[in-house]
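The records we work with from here on pair a chain with its fold. These numbers are not coordinates but entries in a learned vocabulary of local backbone shapes. To see the layout at work, look at the sequence and tokens printed below.
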Amino acid sequence: MGAIARARSLRKRMTPAEARLWVRSRELRSEGLHFRRQHPERGYILDFVCLSRGLIVEVDGSSHLDPDRLRKDRVRNAVLGREGFVTMRVSNGDIKERVEEVIRDVRMRCRALPTRSSLRADHPPPVVEGDR
């Protein structure tokens, strides 16, 4: 299964915590903070990402406490960090018990990050007539 098909599949079967965060994150749109869910990026599927600010929000269950999983998460964070992304990890329990605080933290983290250019460094600007 390709990354896009896998992302679509994951969107259809979000965990209760992911679904709750998705609904609540939509209120940030009015502030210019648009999140995508289950977004494929560099071989990974990001739970939520605000591409304009480079903030990834990962919703972690208890499986992320496993030493092997922690190592994989660190590698993933480093790979995406080299692309200019910042990862914020939130537990299922935090979303269940204190979603207001989680949304406030997401808002603050986004606002603290600079707006990213829509042009990525690995894509040269288009050649416009007369530039040659």
About this structure: The beta strands are 36-41, 44-50, 55-60, 86-91. Residues 3-112 form a domain with the Endonuclease; Chain A fold (CATH 3.40.960.10). The radius of gyration is 16 Å.
